[in-house]
Amino acid sequence: QVHLVESGGGLVQTGGSLRLSCRAAGDTFTINAMGWYRQAPGKQRELVASISGTDNTNYADSVKGRFTISRDHASDTVYLQMNSLKPEDTAVYYCNAKRGWTPDVHIYPKSDFWGQGTQVTVSS
After folding, report:
1. pLDDT tens by residue, 93-106
2. What does 47-80 look like in DSSP terms, one character per residue?
């Protein structure tokens, strides 16, 4: 099994910066892609940024040019650097890890793992 723990959320003014961290533990060798999702009040959970096992990245249009996702494979940690923050970035941010096919499919089936979430609040 995989366990994810996020940190780095908090309060910041418009234009400020925050860096979120997510460390994975457990069967981390079975993880393929990782990413950050967020859910704002009254909205559905949406993908913010993702990074593949080979470090290819993908971003939501709303954060392109402002956010950067990175991955430290040695420490099983993924980061989200958030710059030029806006009030509309206010949300609970969740770390995600995805396990795809493995040779031992009955021991390590395909699955998604989620962290507990960390609150990001951007004031006007």
Report:
1. 999 999 988 888 89
2. EEEEE-TT--EEE-GGGTTTEEEEEETTTTEEEE
